[in-house]
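Researcher: Structure for this, please.
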Amino acid sequence: MSRVLYISYDGMSDPLGQSQVLPYLRGLRERGHEIHLLSFEKPASFARAGEALKQSVKAAGIEWHPLKYHARPPVLSAVYDLQRMKRRALKLARLHSLDIVHCRGYLPAMAGRAVKRKTGARFIFDMRGFWPDERVDGGLWPQSRLLYRWIYRYFKKAEKKLLYEAAHIVSLTVAGKKIIEEELAPAAAAPVTVIPTCTDMRHFDFSRFGPAENEALRRKAGIPEGALTIGYLGSTGTWYLTDEMLRFFRILRQKRRAVLLMITRDDPERLRKRATELGLPAEDILIRPAGYREVPQWVSLFDFGLFFIKPGFSKQASSPTKMGEILAMGKPVICNAGVGDVAMLVKRFDAGIALESLDEKAFEEAVARLDALKEKPAGHYRKAAAEWFSLERGVDLYDKIYRELPA
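Model: Predicted structure, token format:
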């Protein structure tokens, strides 16, 4: 059994923590590992969900050590949180004689590297993508400004040190693993394991919802009888090509009766306004917020899941969480190539359509193929999710890493 400190800068009271951190840790605790969790919680989210989560995490046998996340001032708040992270991580490692420090992302990895140097704990760099390049590609660190050029160079130097000092590296994608091994750290001794963002197949299971239940939800959402339902799941900012998705939907509407059902907490008025500007009637854009518990049933209403993501160097290391969740619910995906392993997986599992370009001709060709996708049974798409994205597979791989780390 390993004694593990898991560090996440993402909060457990946020949807991401509940879907992409806690399920893994519960599974690893069940495998016999001692788990201590250090996370940074946004005050509003923690006030809403913190107390219930404390009970749930405690019942799972996980020792949770939440700290307050600071968002302001930009940059300086992250530096402040990093120093607190290092101090608390070192204290916990010493107090509990922890022998593995598992770090989710770059800032946690910098804290984990410090713990490794001072205690000898083995350090796992769970990259979650090429974060410095994501910040640049997404326009968050504009390289026209001296400060952000300096910050980018600082983290790229840190990235190399983290890759070379880690005992094990985790990449979300096969494409990212190739870049790590051939470009970023070709002489690193640490092995690289690919573990995509995983899906809890018990939570995302279409058999949980009967026809009558779904029909009632369709009426509540305002989906007309017989209308094809194109579904979008998640936020629409920074990386997601909202205009292109709306244009795809516009082409589809020219061919058949359809609605776009968007399950998102984003501002509905902003989305409807943009749809109207692109010539789409507001009544065909249905926008519903949902928590993690409600998401599966909403996805069960989709005929297809749609997502277009801005491609780029950093996106080769990205694994869209929504892809596994949509497939697990027995729905095919319509997406674009150039993002992580998306196109490879669509082809390998015959899981939908991955467009090589996002122009009108490509949209029309994709629309013409939709009926063929619908002919496949839901179990076909769920099987793809089970083989690549299942939570159980992810826990198995993390458990293997823990047990095989060199002493």
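Researcher: Any notable elements?
Model: The chain has two domains: 3-198+390-404, 206-388. The longest helix spans residues 76-96.
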